UniProtKB/TrEMBL annotation:
InterPro entries xrefs: RmlC-like_jellyroll, RmlC_Cupin_sf, Uncharacterised_HutD/Ves
Superkingdom: Bacteria
Phylogenetic classification of the source organism: Bacteria, Pseudomonadati, Pseudomonadota, Alphaproteobacteria, Hyphomicrobiales
Organism: Rhizobium tubonense
Protein name: HutD-family protein
Length: 194
């Protein structure tokens, strides 16, 4: 019987590129579920986008999103019913409803953001920004877990299997429980989808 791997490694060079829903830029889709789902019918989606000018965000009805800045000087977000918030590459990931009217003003030139979205009422998500300097352990609690290497290079070990992530590569773990060990030097985002 063939051994089934507990994870899947996605490489930056293989990601799918597509126009924004509102046509205002380009998105790099890292992973989506169900696989191959369109923007109107995904349960969860992880993507990166380059924002090169000020303007409105696409509206996604019934979706919750979390935004992080991967590079660039940052942007000020104007989210309906909230005070403006400055988001930089040092900020904690910012959760907000993807169906709230939202626009952004760039601080000083283009940025690249990391965008996690889940369908409200079906799934929820949590995003953690982690700096790895030597080793870092994560308890995997039985939900889908993704690790995106934002910068640097990381080694990963889980259930006697190992992988290496370069910049912007991503690892997807299934719903097994256990321990994930990260090693090396880098900045990563740990995304848990429940």
């Amino acid at each position: 019987m063939a051994h089934r791997s507990t994870f899947r490694t996605l490489r930056n060079k293989d990601y799918t590129r597509m126009p924004w829903k509102n046509g205002g830029g380009e998105t790099v889709e890292i992973a989506v579920f169900p696989e191959g789902a369109a923007l109107a019918d995904f349960d969860w989606r992880v993507s990166m986008a380059t924002v090169a000018s000020d303007g409105p965000f696409s509206i996604f009805p019934g979706i919750d999103r979390t935004l992080s800045i991967l590079d660039g000087e940052g942007m000020t977000l104007f989210i309906e019913d909230r005070e403006p918030i400055l988001l930089t590459d040092k900020s904690a990931p910012l959760p907000f409803p993807a169906d709230a009217a939202t626009s952004a003003t760039l601080v000083g030139g283009p940025i690249t953001d990391l965008n996690i979205m889940t369908r409200r009422g079906i799934l929820s998500h949590d995003v953690e920004r982690v700096t790895v300097d030597d080793t870092f352990e994560i308890a995997v609690q039985g939900q889908t877990t993704l690790v995106l290497c934002a910068s640097g290079a990381l080694g990963l070990e889980v259930a006697d299997e190992s992988a290496a992530l370069g910049e912007r590569d991503c690892l997807i773990l299934g719903t097994e429980k256990g321990k994930l060990t990260l090693s090396g030097k880098g900045l990563c985002y740990i995304i848990r989808i429940a």
